[in-house]
Every structure is written in structure tokens, then in C-alpha cells.
Amino acid sequence: MKFFLDTANVEEIKRINELGLVDGVTTNPTIISKEGRDFKEVITEICGIVAGPVSAEVIALDTEGMVKEAREIAQWADNVVVKIPMTEAGLKAVHILSKEQIKTNVTLIFTVAQGLMAAKAGASFISPFVGRLDDIGTDSLALIRHLRQVLDQYGYSAEIIAASIRNLKHVEDVAELGADIATIPGSIFPKLWSHPLTDAGIEAFMQDWQSFKG
Length: 214
Ligand code: G3P
Known about the structure:
By secondary structure, the protein is of the alpha/beta class. The chain has 10 helices and 8 strands. Helix 6 links the parallel strand 5 (104-109) and strand 6. It is globular and about 75 Å long. It binds SN-glycerol-3-phosphate.
């Protein structure tokens, strides 16, 4: 399974990347705005840190505008992926860009049908939003399970990025259900290797060792 960082914070990315755990990065306009830095500058810097795909989202909502922005973003680095919103105009843009070998990540996916449309239009990645579906009381894990099933059934190559990850359980659940990737905020990532019983166990071992030596 691949793990992406859902952040544009360069320090967070460097720290976790040094553990060999980061296969890519995803951003969106909200994430970029939190850093208060120039869009191109921060994406280019992240692309230089991480070897895998780095998603940068277009701002335009019409096909022509999306394609124009995407062609420019695609020039920034070899590993940049253009994030496109899941709309009719977005699907048309994905279709045009796929013919130019520009990789896209279709975002804001909430149904199996939306995922199928994005995959069929030529997206390299599709991003179903787990946490936001949970927020409205919808079974987000059923969406991941069904997307996995239908993409495999029809042989689509688009990779499923489980996005809007809010906790450790989300990561474990989407891993079990066969999501190709989980994109995880920097605040959640350390929870993947932490457990209070691990900390307590280390403390007890150290105390016993000190008593033994004394
Ligand atoms: O990058 C898209 C997604 O992961 C955003 O998550 O927490 O804003 O729903 P969230």
C-alpha cells in the first residue's frame, strides 16, 4: 500500500519522508492557503523532496481554464499530477489532458458513479473523500469497497486515493478494503507508528534495567 501526505508543509514532508514512508503528496487550495506561500514555489519544492506523485489543484472551473492551468502546472516538475474537480467540465479536461499524457487526480468523489466516470475519462488517480462522507452519516467504507470492486472488474488502471482521512481507523479500514493509496494529514501520520502500550512498555523496560544495574 502507498501512503501520501495530505499537506503542503515542507517541514512535515521532510520529517516523514526521512522514514521512507512517503510515496507522494496531495494538496488542495485550502492546504496551499495554510502555508501562505507562492503556489508554484511550494509545489516545486515538494516535487524536489518527494520522488512520487505530487498533486496540485487547478482553480478554474471551466474546461478551457482547467486545461490551460493544467498544462502550465505539468511543466513545473516531472512528478507533478494535476488535480481536477469532479464536474462535467472537469471530466472533459481530464479527457483532453489524458491524450497529452498529463496525469490527473480527480478530486471530490463521493459516489461509485463519479469514480467510474473519472476512471473512464482517463484519470490516473481518483480521490474519494472518506471523512466528509462520515460527516454526513454516509457509509464511506462502502464507497471504497465498491470502487475497488468495479475498477478491478472492468480493468481500469486509475488508482484509488482514499482522501479526507481523519483518524488511524480510517487508514486501517481503507488498507483492508484495497485502496491503492491513503493520503494522510501530517497530524495523523505519526499515529500510524504510535501506541501508548509501546511507550509504557519502553518505560517499564528502562526502569527494570536501571533497577537491575543498580
Ligand atoms: O486533499 C483532499 C482531502 O484529503 C481533504 O480532506 O479533511 O478537508 O475533508 P478534508
